[in-house]
Amino acid sequence: MKGLYIFATYNKKYMGLFSNIFGSNDSEKETVKSNVNWIPLNSLDQLEEIKELSKTESITIFKHSTRCAISRGVLKQFENSFDDELSTLKVYYLDLLNYREISNEVGYQFQVLHQSPQLLVIKNQDTVAFASHYDIMSIDLKKYV
After folding, report:
1. Class of the 38-144 domain?
2. pLDDT confidence of residue 34
3. Where are the domains of the chain?
4. What is the pTM of this model?
5. 64-74 average pLDDT score
6. Which listed site, 2, 28, 117, 145, has its alpha carbon 20 to 30 Å from 16?
């Protein structure tokens, strides 16, 4: 019995260590709060909605590749830089791997060569700012709110 207790204690201690290194199961994951009110962009019809909304406010589209480490890093920086002053800004999130056709149409309609990650700011149906990769962080979104 003593051997079983030692094994269980050892197992719990080192499995916790392995979980910290390699990750834990879904029930133990923390939910990270984001100040970005992401709007999923998953329909071509939404591009007309974006154009219409852009007549009265700035709209942003964040094109993200879920397989790209750079895109993941920029997405995290983007979320971390989003503060209360930007809370009213509409931000559409485009998973370009799952919605390649929409990504192509975004490039065509807003006249921007595809890259990822990429951020577009749309105002009055036109692209008023865009950037790719780490340059996304250089766009001052506060001037578009």
Report:
1. alpha beta
2. 75
3. 1-30, 38-144
4. 0.76
5. 93
6. 2
